[in-house]
Specification:
The protein has helices at about 10-35, 40-55, 60-65, 75-90, 95-110, 120-130, 135-140, 160-175. It has about 180 residues and is mostly helical. Helix 1 runs antiparallel to helix 4 (about 75-90). The chain is globular.
Length: about 180
């Protein structure tokens, strides 16, 4: 796993996995309201938490990620909430996915309550309050989105569009935070 700065150590991945799971769980209702019979995002969050506590090892977590493939829900907000859970479940493989989970959760809120534009900032502030000093330190160790090609923060889905902009805001907030 040490091939990329985006990997993080196993202990740091376990730390940020719980935070990523909390971010995804907070918006899970958006998915479950739209798709009440699909438990894959909830199961992904459960696995992420099992990885965080050491009950699931990285190899098993990687094998079990969203066995049914990608999820396209009935609404953009629900799809973003499902993607938050998927990104959280990928933290066992690479720590940078924690920022993807948080960013998709913010996007889910933005899409789910468009009449409340302040909700995205409120969500990001909540996410910040959930970061322990150790989680902050681990997230600070990640390269800035778009600067390291060797992982999910490199050029691609997490570095572009609304998700890339949200991750940039999250990284600015993390950099400005006191431990």
């Amino acid at each position: 796993m040490a091939d990329s700065a985006q990997s993080l150590s196993l202990s740091d991945r376990r730390l940020v996995a719980e935070w990523a799971a909390a971010c995804a769980h907070r918006v899970l209702w958006l998915f479950e309201t739209a798709c009440p019979d699909d438990d894959r995002p909830r199961a992904a969050i459960v696995r992420t938490r099992a990885f965080a506590t050491g009950e699931l090892d990285a190899a098993a977590g990687i094998r079990q990620r969203f066995g049914g493939g990608s999820i396209a829900a009935k609404s953009p907000a629900a799809t973003a909430a499902a993607r938050a859970a998927g990104q959280a479940s990928a933290v066992c493989h690479m720590g940078a996915h924690a920022l993807g989970a948080a960013a998709y959760a913010v996007l889910a809120v933005k899409l789910g309550v468009p009449e409340r534009p302040e909700a995205t900032q409120t969500e990001m502030e909540w996410q910040r309050t959930q970061m322990s000093a150790d989680v902050l330190a681990a997230l600070r160790a990640l390269p800035l989105v778009g600067t390291d090609r060797s992982g999910p923060l490199g050029p691609g889905l997490l570095a572009s569009g609304q998700i890339g902009a949200i991750i940039r805001r999250l990284q600015d907030m993390i950099a400005a935070s006191e431990a």
